[in-house]
Design brief:
Length: about 375
């Protein structure tokens, strides 16, 4: 299911494309080859990604991306209500950017397929520099069309649609400091829950003390997120980065995260990064680890991502870049390795794999994960 792993894909891809300042310039001609891996909570997701960017006459840039997730899942959600499974998700995307003076206009299209989920998306972005390139305004819109399927039931096909609106502003404060603000809102409509997930409810007629029924979510959702980022350059080419982000939606979830990072160069070729990130959220209005009875309310959720939880992560990265002085076709290359350790703690989601405990008294669930990205980049 794409919804289960999209946050991992976004997390990995952001390593390649995120920046505090989205200036109105075209990206450099460059190719990236990435291997990514997520291992935690009984889930292993790995695969390659290839990203190619090429400019045409200094006014147009074309980007092509191919991304693969190979999924092996035996998560607690799966092993308690179904069987472990493997699947593959393939995603292809393309974007075209056009530069005129201090304005960049871009359009993009992407699609992904797996055995029980098909997704398509399209969007456009606008970026404009002002005041001697000290201020950058960006705005964008995208729309997605998904078809949700279900393994073992070829007749099951439900639609899900989403729209995203975003605005960003970045400002050079001093010669050494930058600040960026961004806001986005997302509206979802259609089939928004996972067809494989179940909730549990008290049932004294069975030995475990509880039984299961399918989850049921509302068919609409709207979320808003606001973030502020700052970067300060130190005299010895190092930099300190900070970010704070808040999120809320119409399902009652409120979340916030903050991140602190430090970048340190070594010699002419090496760059080292270290970061710490904390995330926390409240549960959805219709979430419960254990409902009092079957059909206890109109909407039902027990997905742990809908519960109250937090996570802390520590990341380390190293990059080696080398300029190809004698090459006719290539300018430079870099080799990059990044590793993040993430610790998840759940406040109202219990580990029902533990036996011999009364329903609702099981220990709270927790797990850790390791995220690894290894990629090679070459400029031409």
């Amino acid at each position: 299911m794409q919804n289960k792993f999209i946050f991992i894909a976004l997390f990995v891809l952001s390593i390649l494309i995120s920046s505090i300042v989205e200036s109105a310039v075209l990206p450099e001609d460059r190719a990236d080859v990435l291997y990514h891996r997520f291992d935690g909570g009984g889930v292993v997701i790995d695969g390659p990604s290839i990203l190619i960017r090429k400019s045409i006459k200094d006014t147009v840039s074309i980007s092509l991306n191919y991304y693969v997730d190979n999924v092996s899942s035996a998560s607690i959600d799966v092993v308690t209500t179904a069987s472990a499974y493997t699947e593959e998700r393939q995603e292809q995307s393309m974007s075209i950017e056009y530069l005129r003076d201090k304005t960049v206009l871009s359009v993009n299209y992407g699609q992904s397929t797996e055995n029980d989920y098909d997704a398509k998306s399209a969007g456009f972005n606008f970026t404009q520099d002002f005041f001697g390139d000290l201020t950058t305004l960006s705005a964008g819109y995208s729309q997605g069309w998904d078809v949700v399927g279900k393994r073992g039931d070829e007749s099951f096909a439900e639609d899900a649609k989403r729209k995203q609106y975003r605005v960003g502003l970045s400002q050079v404060i001093t010669k050494n400091s930058l600040v960026g603000l961004s806001w986005e809102t997302i509206t979802d409509a259609g089939f928004l829950n996972n067809p494989y997930r179940s909730v549990r409810y008290l049932d004294t007629s069975v030995g475990t003390g509880f039984s299961f029924q399918s989850e049921l979510y509302p068919e609409t959702r709207t979320s808003d997120a606001f973030s502020i980022r700052a970067m300060y350059y130190l005299p010895y080419r190092a930099a300190i980065k900070t970010e704070y982000r808040v999120f809320s939606d119409t399902w009652g979830i409120e979340a916030k995260n903050y991140e602190l990072g430090y970048t340190h160069p070594y010699g002419e070729n090496w760059i080292f990064d270290v970061k710490f990130r904390h995330y926390e959220q409240t549960k959805a209005n219709f979430y419960s680890d254990l409902f009092s009875r079957i059909d206890a309310q109109n909407f039902l959720a027990r997905d742990k991502e809908m519960s109250t939880f937090s996570n802390d992560s520590v990341g380390l990265a190293v990059s080696y870049e080398y300029e190809l002085m004698n090459s006719t076709y290539f300018d430079r290359f870099s080799i990059n390795l990044a590793v993040d350790y993430i610790d998840f703690q759940f406040e109202d989601f219990r580990d029902i794999t533990v036996n011999g405990v009364a329903a609702g008294e099981e220990p709270l669930y927790a797990y850790d994960a390791l995220v690894t990205r290894l990629y090679f980049s070459i400029w031409y």
